[in-house]
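pinned: reference chain
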Amino acid sequence: MGSVEDAVEGVEMSVLHLQDSVNQLYFTVIGILVLLGVLGCAMMESGISRSKNSLVGITKNIAGLALSVCLYWLIGAAFADFSGGNKFLGYNHFAGHDIGSIEYGEMFFFCCIGGLIIAFVSRALCERINIMAHLIVCGILTGIVWPIVAHWIWADNGWLKVGTLTDDGQATFLDDGGACCIHIFVGIVILVGAFFCEARLKKGQNSSLIYASIGGIFIIISMFAVHIGVRRSISSSTEEGEAEGHEIGIAALNTVAGGCAGCGTVLIMGRVYKQKWDVLGGINGFLAGQISVAAGVFHFYPGVAFCVGVIGAFSYMLWVQFSKIIIDDPCKAFAVHFGAGLWAIFAAPLMIREESLFYDFTYYRLQIVGWNALGTLIIICWTLVIFAFIFGILKAFKLLRVNKEMYNQGLDMYYHNKKAVTLRLKEKGEEAAIVRTMTVKARERKDTATLKKNQKQKDKEERAAARAAARAAAGPGHIKVSGDEGSADEKVPEAEIIVNAGAENLYINQEELVDKSQHSKHSKKSKSSKSRSHHGIDIEAGALVDAPVGFGSEDEGEGGAIRIDIGGGGVVETKMDGSKSHSHKSGSHKRSSSSSSSSSSSSSSSSSSSSSSSSKSKKSKSKSRSRSKSPAAASHHSGGEN
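pinned: its structure tokens
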């Protein structure tokens, strides 16, 4: 008999050792997957930040991970103590003292959880919080505050886990995957931190949305590990005699169902209302769906978990709108963690299979919902008071936020004396080092636009000054228009004369109207609004320009005047006073009259020629009378008399 008993005892010991080994491997693998979430938070923070501040995000997450692991091992694990202590906190295993070999894997897993929590906070406070302030918050959070909350909810004798005795049974706090212990806690820390840190100095111009999106996918993967790992064992049996391992599959299925539902809901709503696909919104929706099923992740039916994820997505979108009013949260982390976590803490007692208010509408189930609500409210107040005090002290001593000089210089240059992106290229045997950030081109475009604007303003002022000087120095310019081109009865095309302010330039719309022999060096071609060639010449006081008889003028300048001698006794004074002058044809009229009388005396027998000439004369007279009656013409003639 002794040999049989020894054999049975040996088999039992072997089974126990195998169970312990399986649990240790389980915690180790799951803990490493949790660390992917830290990497994801670092990538998301770096991608969301401006490129000159992106390297600091990775530094904060690495430093926060190292410090949180150390402090959780030193004091945090003792305060958490999931198998000992009193109802409020634990007090065993400081610095790993008196810890069994089977608990090393569990301690490693929760060390990783502590690093993930501070990474969640870090990404929400990107580009604002000082590194030293971040490390102070990290030490208090992972060393003292969060381990106590974890002891309340997950320890065997924690006061929320033990619950309260009711007439129908024990009402206990239901939070399998950390909806309140992790996510609501993190959401309150983010809310307080972002409120005290205030808004970023400049928004937009993300360093890389690709990095941010890939980081979000890593966080999604880590959430599976968190939900599965808090089970703390997979090799034992449940109270109902079932293997614990099968609950791992249920948790994974519920997590992916809730996540996919949340992601799809946010993407569809963004497409409908914003007419675009929001990739970061989809990632946050996936996370919100995962968090929504966290509290009852081992007890939901997959179909119910999908519905919970849809509602969690709407809760996330609602809290996004609320957070925009009070804080600057570029990653929407507060809405993800607090909004979805708050819904999750009520979804579990309402909708888990068989033991929820949905399946068993009794007063006892309602008391469980109330106990979850009470525990959540106490944890919110606990976290809010402590971290409001911590952030307030840091802000009072001006240790919390980076100053404006640090921000303008770039946090990467200030903390590391390096830029985020350095490219080195080799071309034709010569090495060219190109050091730039993702916003260099944007800054160059802005600087170029500013220079162009300043130069344009400067040119405008110089032109105004030149016109004023020209008006002060130059007297009226004179233009002599001779009528010696063509025969007397020949039609002469009208010339359009445009004079700029200060008698600087004269433009005539017919090429042959300018005496090229005298003014070719001053002439230049440009297109008028009527697609006719124009020539510009500079005019000085008393300058003479030869042109045919017919002309028209348009004054575009201010001050000064041009005296135009048409020939045949006609003189027109064109003033440059800002008013638009009209065409004058007094000289043309006289020339047309002389042409008519010459034709009738030379060939009186030709009645058709005479009538044609007289009709031209009548038309010319009517035009002359109509124009002489216009106010502009009157002003011009009065100017000529003067």
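why pinned: The first strand starts at residue 164 and ends at 165. Residues 2-48 form the longest helix (47 residues).
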